[in-house]
Amino acid sequence: MPSKLNPTRYAHCEGHTGLCFSEDGKHIITCGNEGDVRVWADLEDDDPVDKCIGEKALAVFQKGTQLFVGSDSNTVQALTFPELELNGIITRFPAPVTHIDVSVDGKILASASSDMKINVTEIDGLKTETLRDHRAPVLSVAIDPKLEYLASSSCDGTVKVWKLSDYSVSHTWNCVPKSNSFTWSTVLCRISWQPRTGRFLAIPDKNEVILYERDTWNKFISFADPNTGTQFLSVTCFSKSGDYLAASTTQGHIYVWNTNGGNIIEKIQTDVKQHVCALAWNPDSNVSQLAFCDVQGNFGTIDDVNTEKSSNIQVEDNMDKGNIPLTDPIFGDSDDEDNENAISIEKIKNESGFGASLGLNDVDKASLSGDGDGRSSRLSIKSIAPALPPIELQPPFQPSSSPVHLQHRYMVWNDLGIVRQVNTEDETAIDVEFHDIGTHYPFRINNSTNNTIAALTAECLVLACDKQEDAPSKLTCILLNAWDGSKEWVAQLSDDEEILAAASGKSWVAVATDKRTLRVFTVAGTQREVISLPGPIVCLCGKDDKLVAVFHSGVGLNGDQCLSYFILRIGNSTKAIFSPTLTQAFPLSPKSTLCWLGFSDEDSLCSVDSAGSLRLLTPSMLWRPVCHLDERNKGKFDHYFVIGVSECNQNIRCVLCKGSFYPPTTPKPALTEVPWQIPICEPTIEKGELEEEFWRSQLAVARIEALSRFDDSLSDVKDNIDKAIKKCVLKLFALACQSGLEMRAVELCELMPTSEIPQLAFKYAAKVGKTQLAERISQVLKRKTEDESDEPVAVVQSYSSSNQDYTSIIKNKVSHKSVSNEIDTEEMLEDDTNQGQENLILSMKQKTSSTQNAVLSNKFKKENPFKKAVNGENNTSKGLQSLSKRPVFNKNISRQVLPEPVKQKSNENKPTKTNPFMEWFSSQKSNLEEEFPDLDTSELTKIAIKRFKEEKQKPSNNQGGLKRFLSVSSMSEESQNTENESQDIIESSQLPLDTKKRKLDTIKNKESDKEKNPFSKLKAFSFNK
């Protein structure tokens, strides 16, 4: 009995129309562009049940007692069936829903949307997983009958197969014509799984339907009509038994193939010859019926699709058409496949990759066929070879741009300005806007050449277009501030070459083509260089004299991209193009692609991948992860569109995109600053927070320190970051000390490149009374001091010869003064900063006391050391005879590694004063050590002071004075006096000779006032306070 095409009837208004059968096959359900859902008993039903669910209803699917409808209200609504009462909302999207599919068991619903996402929802618990790998509106979804895979097609030109176990992409094909939106898509690419087993996936590919094998995703067979002309196949649908495959075209044709034999049994032209946008088989096995709808809102059916007719078929090239046995089905369901106890040798071979013709050469195949004329036998019908699944290479893109298929998009958005493109049926234009109106006024140009690539600098706007059938690819450079009044120039490429990426910098323009060629022009249009690229280009990026090219260097494994990059420096002369580095591998997160590439405000190369990981290239040519942007989002479906990176402020300038990957063009979105956050282990505890802040600051200071040599404005920024680093290290040091982890504390000192931080750490250890820790730090400090200076400084030599090291200072401190176990790290840092952290001796030379008091304050103030004393000032020093001796330093001075003092001009020709005690102690040191072998350094120094005093002064006075001094050395008031005396000695020893003479009388008067304490001079030699 021949099939019957019933006359179509009006069902909905013009526009996309959805259709499905009820699960029992007794009703036909349609939805249309006016927002109504209608339930028809048959084609002649004049009073269908209808329900309005919104302005537009685009997708419908019935399962069990529920009817699921997707609309432009961005939701999938559940209605009762057949009453059509609202029963809740299954899932939501930021954009209209385009297609719906429900699993065989009715537990999982897959829905597609125009916002490039797919939601997989458990109907009972409404738990939703979102798939986001598409870069354009999604056209269709199809759930595998075995619930292992999900297939989807998109306007971005791809068909993807997802694993439902981990929602990763298993395979991708490029077979869909690209478009800007779901409404204006050329085809709908409705894909279909073979029922029950899901052995094959049917995908419409232009004018044919291709069946791909499950798991291997190899092409098995293709169906086509050689007389299709220019029309494309758009919708496919398997019958419930899987024996028939129907497909519709964009011009109203409907084909039906017998999957068992592979021949066409129906070829039907609809009445109105419009794009058939929906096609469905009646699930009732007793009825062979097809229902369809077109974009005019017409609804029709085809009855009795049963009779098999012979027709021409097109199969895979490796199949012999004459040898396909119609009596031996290739596709049909068999009992063996459903019987888990059955053994199929063919199935085992196919699954293991050992097909019948695997590894056979032509001679072997001929021998197996049994024919001498080279004809193939049935063993060569299907060839399965084990191979890795093909990896889709990332296509080229422009940084800070949105996809080309969008009607309103950003061609580029950088720190200089914004370039927008409008590509609608009514208007094609490019708008250019600058953040600073002083750079250039905004303007608009007509995009008659369909430019899709743009780069913007202060000198020019670079535009490039793809090659067309009747026009080659062109490069257009619009000059913004040309001194000769030039406005633009155009470079036309050859007919077989196309521009894929563009970049611009200071006085140069560069484009990369599909011929793997990098072409460099001057900003005025002179062709300067032609460079071969090692692989297909991914993107270009430029700033000032630097050009970066990222390209494919191989095929990645397990879904990864294998990218490499090189950096070129482009100077003004013809020989100034060179690469400072060799080609290096480009880092990406697993199974991710490159999304953004650019330079920071401080000229460091940065990148962002699709996983949201921001990386920065350090001066040592190492990529460091700076921040994971997706983890900083509050919303699960939100993303950041990166504009720029600042190392001084340690943040990222970007646009927060709610529910999408790209920002809208209108209204203009606001910029957001996202602070850096280094991916440190345990970031929530105090130690992790301090480590993150330290390494974040350490990462920024390296580049800023180099730039501050040429830009004085960055000096303050560098100082602030340096101070933050010191605070973090000292807090980590204090935390390690409080936790009893002294080895970790010493390691922190060893990690520091200079001796500055170990000096502060030594001070902390001295105050909290950790003698062993301070001794270790003193050793680290000496090593770092020796590394910083090729020649040992004089003061350090004196202390080394006298064995007066830091350990002795601490032991004296502990024995004569109790200390607190806790200290405020920030106060210690500020106090040490006031005293001069880098060079304490030089710092004290540059500081004098306030002028109102006779005694110096222990807070040093910066004043001119050569300034003459005015009336009313009393700048006397204590200890007249100490003017001719090398000074002995107070407690704060002794804790620093003291470099050689800077000589004043007035004393350049004068001999250096030496300290008699230090000279005497150096000569007597060995004798004292032999006499007192059991004493440590501090006790040995005490005895040396006593011996020196006995030799230089009267025994009675010396003995009593020294005892009195040692007995009160731990008192705070006496410590202050000693500190002031040491300071007076230092300053007076550095003053010019005439200044010393003017002060002589004042100093003598002061000594006469202190005759009651004749041993005040000896306090300068004490290392205790």
From TrEMBL:
Subcellular location, principal: nucleus
Biased composition (Basic and acidic residues): 902-911, 1000-1014
Domain of life: Eukaryota
Subcellular localization(s) per the UniProt record: Nucleus
GO CC aspect terms: nuclear replication fork
Biological processes annotated in GO: DNA repair; DNA-templated DNA replication; mitotic cell cycle
Domain WDHD1 first WD40, residue spans: 9-301
Biased composition (Low complexity): 969-980
Protein name from the UniProt record: Uncharacterized protein
Naturally occurring in which organism (per UniProt): Clastoptera arizonana (Arizona spittle bug)
